[in-house]
Specification:
The chain has 1 helix and 6 strands. The chain has a 3-stranded antiparallel β-sheet with strand order 1-6-3, with no helix packed on it.
Length: 110
């Protein structure tokens, strides 16, 4: 418990010391919508609070309800990033059926 509180305190102090109200980290998830069989789709996430600039790192994942092995996959994060949004490309590896899922992106300010 102390370790968690210390990290939260440190992050709060780092934000206050920098004089910024912009977030240090955000996680956002959105539905992918339907991705056609063997197709790919660009999915954009709009951050709840904009970053001060485009200098932040992004990692992501995609989940679906299929029982097929790796039907939907995250192909790549689209560059350049925007302070208010980020995009990723989701690919459907299923050759015979459209799929939908959930894309989640985590962003950390540099």
């Amino acid at each position: 418990m102390r370790r968690v509180l210390a990290v939260a305190w440190f992050l709060g102090m780092a934000s206050a010391a920098a004089g910024q109200s912009a977030p240090l980290h955000q996680r956002q998830c959105v539905p992918t919508g339907e991705v056609g069989a063997g197709d790919l789709k660009r999915v954009t996430i709009t951050w709840k609070q904009s970053f001060p600039n485009s200098k932040y790192a992004v990692i992501g994942s995609v989940a679906d309800t299929s029982t097929s092995a790796a039907a939907l996959q995250l192909s790549h994060i689209v560059l350049p990033l925007s302070p208010s949004s980020a995009s990723a490309v989701v690919v459907n590896n299923s050759p015979g059926q459209a799929r939908s899922g959930l894309l989640c992106l985590d962003a950390t300010a540099n």
